[in-house]
Specification:
With 253 residues, this protein is α/β, with parallel strands linked by helices. It is built from 7 helices and 7 strands, in the order βαββαβαβαβααβα. A 7-stranded parallel beta sheet has the order 3-2-1-4-5-6-7, sandwiched between helices. GO terms for molecular function: oxidoreductase activity.
Length: 253
């Protein structure tokens, strides 16, 4: 495991949810942390406003944050938005909104963070937020799923390109997790209960669950180009599973 104390980190989407949780955990490990967020706030030592979908904003905000920190060793490219829509009816403006933030934004922030880590000369690690939706084929969220699948491939290519600079690149893929992003689903009666029921470990994920996975990816010095599904087992489920029928029952047929 790596010694993180005294290192410098950058988190996008750090004002709330998983991003804020990662910041608090990194600070507890002795890191100084900067946050880039559209509405800067939260627990970071340095907070800079940034629209991750806008190239000039990302370039300027990253330079500002890294300048205030005095360098960079770790980055968590996490900023993202939820999005629902049918292939048949979704306006392209909605498609562009989600793709620009959830994929273009990760490409831009990874690029600028990688430059800063390279220039610091000590190597480091980058973790990006993917999703179980980028692994499974969930209906009603084609643009979100495409963006998150793109993040998975991004970290594979980036891991190869950045290895020469001693930079590891991985992704965490949360399953359904209790964060502000899921608040909109509260109006759907029984939805949370359904998500818990189809999760092998029997509950929704928490911010702390995802934080643990992110810190592990920062610390695992021989792991790069990988996506870690932190999802309670959702992505190992099969469409042929029958509710209420377990392996022993099937074996008796």
């Amino acid at each position: 495991m790596l010694e993180l104390a005294g290192k410098l980190a950058l988190v996008t989407g750090g004002a709330s949810g998983i991003g804020a949780g990662v910041i608090v955990a990194l600070q507890a490990q002795g890191l100084r942390v900067a946050s880039l967020d559209l509405q800067p706030g939260g627990p970071a030592d340095v907070r800079v406003a940034c629209d991750v979908a806008d190239e000039q904003s990302v370039v300027a905000a990253t330079a500002d944050a890294v300048g205030q920190l005095g360098g960079l060793h770790y980055a968590f490219c996490n900023a993202g938005v939820a999005g629902m829509g049918s292939i048949l009816t979704m306006p392209m403006a909605e498609y562009d909104r989600v793709m620009n933030i959830n994929l273009r934004g990760v490409v831009l922030t990874l690029r600028e963070a990688a430059k800063a880590i390279r220039d610091s000369g000590q190597g480091g690690a980058i973790v990006c937020t993917a999703s179980s939706a980028g692994i499974m084929a969930d209906i009603g969220m084609v643009h979100y799923s495409l963006a998150k699948m793109g993040v998975r491939q991004l970290v594979r290519v980036a891991a190869r390109e950045l290895a020469v600079h001693g930079i590891r690149v991985n992704a965490v893929a949360p399953g359904p997790t209790v964060t502000p992003m899921l608040d909109g689903a509260a109006e759907m009666t029984g939805y949370f209960e359904h998500l818990a029921a189809i999760t092998p470990l029997g509950r929704l994920g928490t911010v702390e669950d995802i934080v643990d996975a992110v810190l592990a990816l920062f610390a695992l010095k021989w792991v790069t180009g990988q996506t870690l599904a932190a999802d309670g087992g959702v992505t190992v489920c099969s469409s042929t599973d029958v509710p209420g029928i377990d392996a022993e029952a099937l074996a008796s047929w």
